[in-house]
Each structure stands twice: as structure tokens, then as C-alpha cells.
Amino acid sequence: MAYPMQLGFQDATSPIMEELLHFHDHTLMIVFLISSLVLYIISLMLTTKLTHTSTMDAQEVETVWTILPAIILILIALPSLRILYMMDEINNPSLTVKTMGHQWYWSYEYTDYEDLSFDSYMIPTSELKPGELRLLEVDNRVVLPMEMTIRVLVSSEDVLHSWAVPSLGLKTDAIPGRLNQTTLMSTRPGLYYGQ
């Protein structure tokens, strides 16, 4: 659960979210190094009056500043593609949960069991108990097993919705007439709020 004035991500609860956090740190370090280098070069050009004219039209310099950004883009793209394929991969799910978005609530159905479905409504602010979180608490929570692959089928009855659980690294759009699929696996027990 995020806390007020939090600058970073929520704690990772799934292997996918751990990979996303590592990728974020990797990319941020590259961006930081590029920004530092550009700031250094700009400050160097503004403070010195001497310019070396032969470097401005040197073939080697043009080759370096063409190849270097391509290498940097490859260093960003390869981990990104690996994570995309990991997120799309489904390995024999142990449980399937069908999630339907409605105007003001979500409907859940455990499809592996007969007649196991329920609606989940947000608790109004006036009915919250002390310690409960406004706009995040619901009357019926989804209970899922830990350390098992779970397939979630997401769709909508009326308008576009977004089904997201940040600590699990999940965000899937619920679109009327379309069935989207995602997988999740929690590595530790806990209460995880969706948004």
C-alpha cells in the first residue's frame, strides 16, 4: 500500500513487479548519465571561449554520436522486451477469475467452480470504519491463493474501465465486447488494493 508523499513505487509482491522495478532503475540510471553528460557539455561550451574547428567536421565524431545512441537504445529495449514477454506468458493457471467492470462496481466469478460469483462495491465514505481507506475499501474482497499462477479474464458490461493492482504490477483495460487476459502470482500474503 502506498503512503502519503511516497516518491517511489509500492513494494513488489510478484516476480513481474520486481522485474519492472529493476527495469525502472536500469533505465533511470541511463537517463541520469545522459542528462549529466549533456549538462556537462553545455556548461563546458558556455564557459570556454576556445573552440577547436577541426572537431566540428570530423568524421569520427559523427560516427560516435550516431552509434552511441543506438547502443543505448538497445540497452533499454532488450530488458523491456524480455519483461513484455514475461507478462504475456501463461503457464498452466491453477485458477481462473473472470472480472466484469460495471459503472460503479466490479463482478467477480471463479470460473473453475459452479455458482461462485459476487459483486464488489466501494464502501461509501460515510460508512467507513476507523483505519479503512477512502475510495479503496470494498464490501467483498477477492481472495486468491499465494504462490500459484492465476489467470484473470477482464471485460466490461458498459463503458471502459481499468483493472489495476500496482503492487502486483498489473493493469488491464476492461473493454465492452473484448476479453482481455492477464496473469498474476503473489509471492507473499497480504491485502493489496486495486485502483
From TrEMBL:
GO terms for cellular component: mitochondrial inner membrane. The chain crosses the membrane at residues 27-46, 66-85. It catalyses: 4 Fe(II)-[cytochrome c] + O2 + 8 H(+)(in) = 4 Fe(III)-[cytochrome c] + 2 H2O + 4 H(+)(out). Binds a copper A center. It comes from Capreolus capreolus (European roe deer). This is Cytochrome c oxidase subunit 2. The keyword ATP-binding does not apply. It is a multi-pass membrane protein. Keywords: Copper, Electron transport, Magnesium, Membrane, Metal-binding, Mitochondrion, Mitochondrion inner membrane, Respiratory chain, Translocase, Transmembrane, Transmembrane helix, Transport. One of its GO terms (biological process) is ATP synthesis coupled electron transport. Component of the cytochrome c oxidase, the last enzyme in the mitochondrial electron transport chain which drives oxidative phosphorylation. The respiratory chain contains 3 multisubunit complexes succinate dehydrogenase (complex II, CII), ubiquinol-cytochrome c oxidoreductase (cytochrome b-c1 complex, complex III, CIII) and cytochrome c oxidase (complex IV, CIV), that cooperate to transfer electrons derived from NADH and succinate to molecular oxygen, creating an electrochemical gradient over the inner membrane that drives transmembrane transport and the ATP synthase.
